[in-house]
Amino acid sequence: MEPDEARKIFKELSRKYAIEILLLIKQGKKTPKQLKKNLGITEGSLYQVLNPLLDCGILDKDRDVRVPPRSDYKLTKRGEVVLRLVELLLLTD
Length: 93
Description:
Elements: H1 3-13, H2 18-26, H3 32-39, H4 43-55, E1 59-64, E2 70-75, H5 77-91
Antiparallel strand pairs: 1-2
Helix pairs in contact: 2-5
């Protein structure tokens, strides 16, 4: 990973709710509706965080074409590594 790419990831992780979203998705795939309910935020606020996390390769989205259509968000391998680092930081005093 290039330093610029790492800087971009850290920038996106600094967004409000980004770490909380990763911790929720660590428990299993989540829909936007589930994330909104757990975090108590608006759809617009949620997507302001989700889209950059997708762009950085931290999250991936599974689309289901059933009616109604549904998207599930999950951690990528990169996202799992990033979350492990975040969890280590959270453990330090």
